[in-house]
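USER: Note each token:
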Amino acid sequence: MSLVSHLECARCARQFEPGKVYNLCPCGSPLWVRYYLRRVAGRRLRQRLASRPPHLWRYRELLPVAQESSIVSLGEGLTPLLHARRLGESLGLANLYLKDESLNPTGSFKARGLAVAVSMARELGIKKLAIPSAGNAGGALAAYAARAGLEAVVFMPEDTPLANRLECALLGAEVVLVPGSIKDCARALRERSEDGWFDCSTLREPYRLEGKKTMAYEIHEQLQWRVPDVMIYPTGGGTGLIGMWKAFDEMQEMGWIEQRRPRMFAVQATGCAPIVRAFERRAEHAEEWPEPKTVASGLRVPAAIGDFLMLRVLRESRGGALAVDDSAMLEGVRELAETEGLVISPEGGATLAALKRLLADGFVSGQETIVLFLTASGYKYVEVLETLVSSAKK
């Protein structure tokens, strides 16, 4: 039985009845799912978790799906939180942790959001799903749509890594290659809206956020019910950043935590850093970034509908936003591989590059508990790995 009380606009707070199909609020802003959290019996739920299966649906009371039969799952969630002892020692950090999202189905954190979004689509009777994607979100939608027996179409930039394109096609999705960035893909999707495709774009439907928020629940559980001091997160559309902040609010309402929150840091690429620029200017919205360029395809998001929400999280948490260049990202990929045995995507490498900057500038200290998010497997970036290995031989 669902404990959803209503849906609510993240900007104007207008409320909507649950159990119906929605994209955005009429004001053009994202919708959030709200729950009857006082009915959850939060402390008892926390005790029950130890006996539940090791996937994100262990937090069933805090997710929007009403019917068990609607759930579409490939075993996503409860990914490792690894204590990075060797890397931490080299940086003077005793409590450095890596949230390794590469072990999700389809190899990235996108599996979390799309598992919940596709489950809700199934429950609401939606048959045709569409998404603009620079790679991993498209693969996740294709996989869960195949699992659910739904149609899927993925609009991808022409320069999307080959592995991502092949993955979507193999999973039975229609793949449409579009010149330009993910924003151009979103435009191409909307041009086909008359064909009856439901838009699963970042924050343009309410439920991907609910899947992504489970990262915060897991980290709290894996740290023995402690809240980390710092979270460093590679940020494109920002669903995970926003979702985790929402999760901490829910935890407080259930009595799991007090008011203290992690300081949240968003990492972008110097070739596409709209949130960093807006944060530095103390703006409420981020202007579109012209000609976005970076090897990290997941960070090549020139404009995000949730920009005001990301900026709010960064400021409320007393965190920040910083951009790192591609060479620093790739050095981070190499260092994580050599010290911790993980082959991760450039987006994950960006978090290590950002951490070094934050350490050098005195924003984080040696005894703090710090979590880096490694959002995807490096095995999908064969071209990047080839470049790294070739450069090491020279």
